[in-house]
Design brief:
Length: 328
């Protein structure tokens, strides 16, 4: 399925769909669960509608049946057999479900990378874990993985229940406050895949999306190395002014920019904001106009979002956006 879909103004290669699997786990779900269950449901539907039409054409009343003991017995048998068939079909679905679930969860070898994903209302905190603290990296709403290697995603929640679901890559799994879940998957086809929170988690549940970028191992390593670095120092006077605006406004209370005094943890880490494809958890493409509009009035784009409006002068806003655009 090589069609493209237009989702929240962004072009994603391949549909945001379970039916376009891009790795072994999603292929298992498609071939082992979706296809047979679709076939079973289609046959069941055809049989039920056929039986309904047949019964309507026969035009029997309840009295016709009850007055005739032989007919009543036949109907009793028919109902019994239909009930047993229903139970058998559901049992087949249960067996399929359990066997595919086990196959998906089976360890696909040594994971190349461990990623901690923490759900927040309404964005995704993404941390690349490493036993050496200086090799950890934090980003938001965009997950990079190397192609053809298994990855482990550790799922946590900072507030309510969310659900992590990149349909082309693996089935969904909940992020539950006070619990740690994990999910393993592998992406075999390089590309950009959309993921979505799949558990209603409040007003902006629908605008809680993320992007999974699957890329060759060397490009992934380059990306991760860049994410581990602190932010680039502002190179010109406009960007320097922008950093001052950032540090002098309420931005600094919620956001981190590594290498500057900004260390807030309530909102997404902005150290490499300009390297990301979207803002506001997949709500808009990360381009200058969207970024400026989001800073000034986040509530217009995402009502209920935890980010307050920022009443900046046009000159301050221009400097701030210029600075943020240097955070590659
Ligand atoms: Cu988070 Cu729905």
């Amino acid at each position: 399925m090589a069609h493209t879909s237009l989702v929240v103004g962004l072009q994603f290669p391949g549909a945001h769909s379970t039916l376009a699997p891009a790795g072994p786990q999603s292929s298992l779900v498609m071939a082992g669960l979706w296809a047979p269950m679709y076939a079973i449901a289609a046959v069941t539907f055809a049989l039920v509608v056929g039986a309904l039409v047949w019964a309507l054409l026969r035009r029997r009343t309840a009295g016709d049946v009850l007055d005739d003991p032989a007919r009543a017995r036949r109907m009793g048998w028919t109902v019994g057999i239909a009930t047993a068939l229903t139970a058998a079909v559901l049992f087949v679905c249960l067996v399929l479900d359990i066997s595919v679930g086990r196959a998906v969860a089976a360890a696909p070898g040594n994971p190349a990378v461990r990623i901690r994903v923490t759900g927040h209302q309404w964005w995704w905190e993404v941390q690349y874990l490493d036993s050496l603290p200086q090799l950890q990296a934090t980003t938001a709403n965009e997950i990079h993985v190397p192609v053809g290697r298994p990855v482990v995603v550790e799922l946590r929640s900072a507030d309510v229940i969310h659900s992590f679901w990149p349909p082309n890559l693996v089935g969904k799994r909940d992020l539950i406050p006070g619990e740690v879940n994990s999910l393993r998957f592998q992406v075999d086809r390089a590309g950009v895949y959309r993921g979505q929170c799949a558990e209603y988690c409040g007003q902006q549940h629908a605008k809680m999306a993320f992007t999974v970028v699957a890329e060759p191992a060397d490009r992934f390593a380059e990306w991760l190395a860049a994410q581990r670095d602190g932010a680039a120092a502002p190179a010109d006077s406009l960007a320097r002014r922008g950093l001052e605006v950032f540090l002098g406004s309420s931005c600094v209370l919620c956001h981190t920019i590594a290498g500057t005094p900004a260390g807030g943890r309530a909102g997404p880490d902005l150290t490499h904001l300009a390297s990301r494809r979207t803002i506001a958890a997949g709500t808009r493409p990360n381009i200058r106009g969207n970024l400026a509009g989001w800073i000034v009035d986040p509530q217009a784009l995402k009502p209920g979002a935890r980010m307050p409006p920022n009443d900046l002068s046009p000159a301050d806003l221009r400097a701030l956006v210029a600075y943020l655009e240097t955070l590659r």
